[in-house]
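Q: I'm teaching a short session on how sequence maps to structure, and I want students to see two examples side by side rather than one. Could you give me a first protein with its sequence written out and its structure tokens following it? Keep the formatting plain so it prints cleanly on a handout.
A: Of course. Example one:
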Amino acid sequence: MRCSMAAEELRMTARIVGDEGEVTAFNFVLPHRDDRVLVTVDGREELEELGRRPSYAYQLEAFTRAVRTGTPPPTAPTTPSRPPS
């Protein structure tokens, strides 16, 4: 992961490498500015665009759904497990 908040342009790129390929998200913190994700498998690259909605829009939708339906948000707190006595 490479991040800088001191640069002239805020860019936060994440690259995840696995056994069968890799994924690079060019600006995962600000998807409304750059929603590109590069998927590389077996040397073939495919550039995907995931949608330029601000991440806050998803948070607001989850909150609204929780208030209206009682469905816990995906980041709901969990009860920590206790070790056996």
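Q: Perfect. Now a second example for contrast.
A: Example two:
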Amino acid sequence: MKVAIASGKRKTAVARAVVKDGKGRFRINHMPFEIYEPEVARLSVLEPVSLIADKSKNVDIDVKVRGGGVVGQAEAARTAVARALLKYFDDPSVEALFKEYDRTLLVNDVRRKLPKLPLGRGARKRRQKSYR
């Protein structure tokens, strides 16, 4: 039995995808993919699978994602699924297809939130001065 495991990150969300031989099932956090909400996140996670639809019919994909918000989790899961599919099929044409479509399918987005600084309400905002 062939198995491929890969991970993906976005902001504070971390996802782990497992691709193995099967009947075409797709689950996120032990729930069927069809009922994963919101729809925008569902479509985002489905992109790598839809790009290679003919090959992905015979594999089961199981994704576990933790941390972050809805969009961060969706982006992390998307990267993890794409990497796991690439590792499972081990085909250079799949890698070229993913990179041509969108580079973030295979490369994590390294942007993080700036830390809050003193004398302000956040990373950039400052308290106003009243004496000028």
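Q: What should students look for in example two?
A: Point them to this: The first strand starts at residue 3 and ends at 10. Also worth mentioning: The mean pLDDT is 90.
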